[in-house]
C-alpha cells in the first residue's frame, strides 16, 4: 500500500484544484494507495474515504509557506499509521495518463545546479540555500523541484529534514532528498514531451501559456500543473472536461 500525501491550505486555493487532482489520481494511479490530507479539510470531502491530519498554518513568521510545508510533511511522516513509502502530491497537480509507481519514483529534475538562472525572490533564495547545503555535503546537484508527483521513503525523508535542518533553514526537501540518496544517478530531465506547466502565463522552455488550444497543448502529456496566475478560464474548462465524474473522495 502506497500513501498519497497532500499538504493542503484551503485559503490558498483559488478554484477547485484539490477536487480535480483527486479525480485525476483515481483515474490514473495504477497501484494500490490511500490518501492522506494534512492541514485543512474542505467541507465537500468525504471523510470516510481519506485520512486526515489537522494542522493550522502559522502566520507572521519568516518564509511561512515553506515552513508550513515542512511542518505538514513532518506531521505526516511521523504519524504512526502512515506507511513507509509515499507519494507527495499537491492540489494543483493532475494526471492526464495512467502512471505506474516506477514512473513516479524515477529521479526527475529540472536542470543541474550550474544551469540555475540568476533570479531574485524568496523561492530562488531557498533554492540557492538548498544547493549550497547539498554542495557542502560533497554532492553534485540537480534542481529536483519539478512540481510533479514524487516517491519518498518516510524514514529517509525524516533523516534528510533532520540532518539538513530543513525546517529551520527553509530548505527544499525534494532537492535535498534526491541529491543525497541518488547523487550520481542521471535524472530524467524535465521535458515538455511528458509534462506541461502553466506558470504566470509565460512561454519558455519550461512553461506554457494557458490561453489558446489547451487540448492541443496537453495532448500526449502525462503530468499537468499550474500556479494561480496560470489558471485561466480555458484551463479550468479543460481540467473539468478531463475529470467530469465525482470521485470517492467527494461527498
Q: Quickly give the structural class.
A: alpha/beta
Largest sheet properties: 5 strands, mixed
Shape: globular
**Strand percentage:** 15-25%
Supply the number of helical segments: 9
- Tell me the CATH architecture: Alpha-Beta Complex
* SSE sequence, one letter per element: EHEEHEEHEEHEEHHHEEHEH
How widely separated are the two ends? 24 Å
How many structurally independent domains? 1
Q: Keywords, please?
A:
251 residues, alpha/beta, Spore Coat Polysaccharide Biosynthesis Protein SpsA, Chain A, five-stranded mixed sheet, three-stranded mixed sheet, 12 strands, 33% helix
Molecular structure report:
By secondary structure, the protein is α/β, with parallel strands linked by helices. The chain has one domain: Spore Coat Polysaccharide Biosynthesis Protein SpsA, Chain A (Alpha-Beta Complex). It is built from nine helices and twelve strands. The strands form four sheets. It has a five-stranded mixed beta sheet. The longest helix has 15 residues, at 122-136. The two termini are 24 Å apart.
Brief sketch in words of this structure:
With 251 residues, the chain is of the alpha/beta class. It has helices at 17-28, 64-77, 101-105, 122-136, 154-163, 166-169, 173-181, 214-218, 233-242; strands at residues 2-8, 33-39, 51-54, 85-88, 93-95, 108-109, 111-112, 142-143, 150-153, 188-189, 195-198, 223-226. It is globular.
Amino acid at each position: 500500500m502506497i500513501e498519497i500525501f497532500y499538504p493542503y491550505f484551503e485559503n490558498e486555493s483559488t478554484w477547485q484544484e484539490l477536487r480535480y487532482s483527486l479525480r485525476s489520481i483515481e483515474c490514473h494511479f495504477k497501484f494500490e494507495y490511500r490518501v492522506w490530507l494534512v492541514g485543512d479539510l474542505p467541507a465537500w470531502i468525504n471523510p470516510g474515504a481519506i485520512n486526515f491530519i489537522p494542522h493550522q498554518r502559522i502566520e507572521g513568521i519568516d518564509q511561512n509557506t515553506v515552513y508550513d510545508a515542512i511542518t505538514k510533511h513532518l506531521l505526516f511522516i511521523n504519524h504512526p499509521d502512515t506507511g513507509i513509502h509515499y507519494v507527495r502530491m499537491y492540489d494543483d497537480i493532475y494526471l492526464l495518463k495512467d502512471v505506474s509507481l516506477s514512473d513516479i519514483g524515477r529521479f526527475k529534475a529540472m536542470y543541474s545546479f550550474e544551469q540555475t538562472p540568476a533570479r531574485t525572490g524568496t523561492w530562488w533564495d531557498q533554492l540557492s540555500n538548498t544547493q549550497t547545503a547539498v554542495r557542502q555535503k560533497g554532492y553534485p546537484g540537480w534542481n529536483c523541484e519539478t512540481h510533479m508527483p514524487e516517491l519518498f521513503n518516510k524514514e529517509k525523508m525524516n533523516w534528510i529534514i533532520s540532518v539538513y535542518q530543513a525546517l529551520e533553514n527553509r530548505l527544499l526537501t525534494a532537492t535535498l532528498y534526491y541529491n543525497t540518496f541518488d547523487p550520481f544517478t542521471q535524472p530524467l530531465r524535465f521535458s515538455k514531451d511528458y509534462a506541461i506547466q502553466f506558470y504566470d502565463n509565460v512561454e519558455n522552455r519550461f512553461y506554457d501559456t494557458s490561453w489558446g488550444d489547451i487540448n492541443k497543448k496537453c495532448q500526449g502529456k502525462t503530468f499537468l500543473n499550474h500556479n494561480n496566475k496560470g489558471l485561466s478560464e480555458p484551463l479550468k474548462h479543460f481540467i473539468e472536461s478531463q475529470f467530469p465524474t465525482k470521485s470517492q473522495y467527494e461527498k
